[in-house]
Amino acid sequence: MFDVIIIGAGVSGAACAREISRFNLKTLLLEAAEDVCCGTSKANSAIIHAGYDAKEGSLMAKLNVEGNAMMDDLARDLDIPFRRNGSLVVCIDEGSRGKLNELYERGIKNGVKGMRIIERDELKEMEPDISDDAVAALYAPTAGIVCPFILNIAMAENAYENGVEFKFNTPVENIEKIEGGYRLTSRDGETFDTKVVINAAGVYADKFHNMFSSEKIEIIPRRGDYILMDKEAGGLVSHTIFPLPGPMGKGILVAPTIHGNLFAGPTSIDIEDKEDRATTGDGLNRVIKGAGLYVKNVPIRQAITSFCGNRAHWAGHEFIIGELPEAPGFIDCAAIESPGLTSSPAIGKMVAGIVEGILKPERKENWNGKRKGILDPSTLSVEERNKLIKEHPEYGRVVCRCEGVTEGEIIDAIRRPLGATTMDGLKRRVRAGAGRCQAGFCTPRQMEILSRELSIPMEEVTKRGNGSYIVKGHSKDDI
Amino acid sequence: MISKRSVVIIGGGPAGLAAAQSVKENGVDDVLILERDKELGGILNQCIHNGFGLHTFKEELTGPEYAGRFIEKVKELGIEYKLNTMVLDIAPDKTVTAINDEDGIFMIKADAVILCMGCRERPRGALNIPGTRPSGIFSAGTAQRLVNREGFMPGKKVVILGSGDIGLIMARRMTLEGAEVKAVAELMPYSGGLKRNIVQCLNDFNIPLLLSHTVTDIKGKDRVEAVVISEVKDGKPVPGTEVEYECDTLLLSVGLLPENELSKTAGVELSRITNGPVVNESLETNIPGVFACGNVLHVHDLVDYVSEEAKNAGRHAAQYVLSGNKEAGTKEERTVKITPENGVRYTVPVSVRPDEMDDELTVRFRVGNVYKNIFLSVYLGDERILHRKRPVVAPGEMEQIILKKSDLLARPEVSEVIIRLEED
What we know:
Number of strands of chain A: 22
Strand content of chain A: 15-25%
Structural class of chain A: alpha+beta
Number of strands of chain B: 28
Low-confidence stretches of chain B: none
Radius of gyration of chain A: 22 Å
Oligomer: heterodimer
Shape of chain B: globular
Radius of gyration of chain B: 22 Å
Largest sheet of chain A: 8 strands, mixed
Structural class of chain B: alpha/beta
Number of helices of chain B: 8
Helix content of chain A: 25-40%
């Protein structure tokens, strides 16, 4: 019997796993997909929010501000890219100025530091391409940008190195109460017994919550479409530019990404099917229109990809975190929509605290919260890089030319703990194929390396597991 | 340590090979080709169909055969090349920084650089095609590499978006390799490819070409299961015209982009229309001693013209080196602008120095639409020197005119050549 089973290897589940790995507990993480970071965590705005949005006194507000404050140390410990680029909520008509002030006041109540309302001239100076209609903005210097994949992956890797077990391709179908805990049954009929369950199942968290809670919830997938632009456009804005928030969320932002691209989105469209991750023409048009309202000259023609993600929205618009009173040992970590990414480190801490209260475990003496990231040779000096290439020639072989990713990095991404097993896994870990040609040139090379490293035939190399094969047999097979 | 070279050629595809040969034949021995792939020849290596070389060799060759002739020549001439070598940066002073697994990162200060990086394919994202994001969506060139070089089938039931030449060629190739090609959809009311390819690759195999159609939705979670194709009017899909095609593969042949990221690091000025460097009659960019040719300059239909252009670029680069790196602008030179007008989208080159030009200069250009029974006119100042009737001109077929040195020298007052289409 496990002490703890976490359902879901998104950013919340991974954060919980890492914090729980501090304890002497037998912990397992079950993930439906083939890799970590495959749901909401892989398709979001990648923003570390300052914390002025969430309602004062809410758990969202508290965890947002706490999570934000934890990010510098976490980024250092986990060796992940993070930058406080600051956010600007821009007001484009005098009539809405009151709302800007409200946001500022709420930020103060939530404990957000360093905010100020700036006027048009200063705003123009900070962001020359801001709309000519802009009148003022709320500037929050503590807001930042992060790589959502790497944050998620790094927390999972670190949890793994500290003893948490991971099992992929294992969607949980059912949970039943058993003596001293719970029995989880996977889609394939495999069972897992545990004392404590953590429900971090993203858009599916309502299913497990409703199995035990008398207060039923419904998680509504709220789709957000995004457009990612070429790195050449990455310098258009340096801060994250938001409109004033509306009833459906924070609106369509324009921001640089941590890797230097330009980014616009998301839409906010409630849908029915949790598996529906299709962008629509209407959605993408809304992104284009929305982005243009606050920033001039957004070069949509330089789009290199578009995608969407489904937020785990709940009508109560509040994180649901805690042990269910009617089901001791069943801990919800549900309805984690924005600012979920920002809050994740604080969510992990809070959930681990609840686990500690239930199981009263001992802390590990040898817990190591540090993780070494995949070596990015471009951060080295020429001398260091040449030394590396001499010892490991694979760092001299550029595979993904657009992002300058070498075979050495790809091999590291595959061989490391919880390593990549798919093309998308490589993309999230080392950005192979994430550049302007979108893997047009390097697909065959990446496949070859995956095939070699994983000892699988080319036909079994997939984009993201399951039936997402890339080639189907050999030429002339059917003739 | 920084080594020195007379001429460094960035890219060992058809442009780089022909340029290198020409540099050498024009008297400069110290030339080096840097190629990122594991072999010379570039994209030609995956173009196993025939039709190459009709102009250059007066015979029909396959891509690898055509490349092979140039590769042999390069070897015969003892031209140095480095494979698996990726250029990371070209500085404005022509210092080239590159990386490979033998030399590590190394720098070469070149007297002249010839840009021969070719082009890349526009990805799905550039078109903002909505839908899911399963596997099974390939740019046509990626699929071509998988099939022709690696021997793998990307899929069995195929829809192709875009009727550029690679899309057309791949429609035939996929059919020959045992796949079913259901349709080729083209956004424009005309194909972007060569007429001969439409006949030989689609018509001969009864593959429907849907003009004024585009893909408006992609379905399938893990792998493509279907695409939706709609009619297009005034550039927009027409609601109610959607037809779903069951397929496992979508190939995109939706445009080629000259790959000029390195040119930008060198400070080379680019054309907003071709996305390639702005060059004069010597195929020299705004940076003296930096030349460009082939698809990095502008996307060609025929490799024969790439070779011809590259030969010229190589010759001019050699002359530049032999003349002691004469900086442009040291003497007041007469420069004549070449202006595209009225249906002509761009020209290469964009200017000509009559004193520097050869006796004849080929000016290549494309038109912006399909025009029938139209006149192609060339003006030197106000004087029309060419008025040629053309039954049909199309964006998919590159056009050319010849400018004569004697014509320009005879008219010292002329500062502009205008190339335009005229009704009569």
